[in-house]
Amino acid sequence: MLNRRRFLTSATAAAALAAFGITPEALAANRIKLSAASKFSYEDLIARARALAQSPYQPQPAPPREILDQIDYEAHGKIKFDTGYAPFADGPGQFPLTFFHLGRFFLSPVRMHVLEGATGSNGAKRAREIVYDESYFDMPADSPAHKLPAGSGFAGFRFQESRLGDQSKLDWHKNDWVAFLGASYFRAIGDLYQYGLSARGIAIDPAVAGKEEEFPNFTHFYFEPPAEGGDAVVVYAVLDGPSITGAYRFVMQRGAGVIMEIEKALFLRKDVSRLGIAPATSMYWFSETVKGTGADWRPEVHDSDGLAIWNGAGEHIWRPLDNPPRTTTSAFGDNNIRGFGLLQRDRNFDHYQDGVMYERRPSLWVEPLEGWGEGAVQLIEIPTDDEIHDNIVAMWVPKAAASAGSSYRLRYRLYWQKEEPFPSPLARCVATRLGRGGQPGQPRPPNVRKFMVEFKGAPLEKLPFGARPEPVLSASRGQFSYVFTEAVPNGVAGHWRAQFDLTVDGEDPVDIRLFLRNKDEPLSETWLFQYHPFKTQGLY
Prior knowledge:
By secondary structure, this protein is mainly β. The chain contains 7 helices and 34 strands.
């Protein structure tokens, strides 16, 4: 049962709270605080972002840092939003809205607004700000959060599952399906009810030599009341940072996984060396690809295990992720790319053996809804020695220079799902394994590495009896030997592996490309890999 509070029952408050989906009968039991109404439209939000870009950057006012620093990880974990105050909880909409508190790791206040219905033929709405009050949160009596001044603000928000759903399977007080928290980060659960990797509104200069990465903030959010019986929510946002401003519209649909349709208008204050569109951020420590030296007891630890690309020419590419010896950036040039994403393909619990359920982490696919022209999917891989660090970034980077005064209007969809939404009809790569090259019983040369790449899918099942798929191999340098294919001896139809040795001298990375074919017909997606020879020291 909701624990509602008593509230004044003025006509103004009744109209405002109706926007939350709160009935008149419930009005007297709720006292969430709202500001006076102001006109709102998405086009006005775009104009506001454009105007912001014409003036120097001014950070949002923040509460005293000395108080926020006291709200450390432990103290923050004890502060819970009281779901009795959740907007949209009592109305026809499906998804109650709850908020995150500020703290040491979430310093920037974000202003939250609720939208009322259209006020004119142009579709304009009215916005009322939700005024922060500590009474919205359950917290210990000695919490340092009590020291914050009135109206300090929120750190982020999340939408809970419908409390009208099957209560035997979920509890809307606890189970959320999308969350926005920190800078421009957000994430959603997939079909398997698990969070994993994150998306961002924008990436500014990640892994650019001599420059610090910039993390613009979502500073304002505007929430439309969920439609009766609907499965989607609509949220608008303002982005602001030293080099960029922006206006966003998110239409987020909860079904089998989560699908987000995103519109955004961006305006550059300054030159940007690497402008990352639709960036995804994930974690990859290790997998079956490389056997380490006992750094951890688990067989694999990662939120994502590969980058998938569907390029403008129609080719499907799979690039396994790596934990490199130094920060690396790989670029996959294209024109009007069809889609890309960081995926978690390995769904076997036995491959992880961990209660945090890495096997259930969602994949994230980006689908451009309009032509993005020339550019590249760029993959950044950063060395890590623990699972607590997000060390993987994948994003689209336009070819044209991102110069001060430039603007962009973009539309795309994000799919948070178990599987990629547009799979290739060809066999897909299901495992990549590296080991010592050479032959058993003979000295193993240090500059030879053995690769075993597994593919599985319908085209391999349909091979004529006695036919063997041909591996098509190339590399930026080095020589191949002992190249052959064989059916994986597990009794599974259509499951084959390609084996080869690569001999290479020196420490520079080697880019390798492989696919399977029968005569002139491709049987598999294209496997790409970046091999770092000097990682052989102590890691294999």
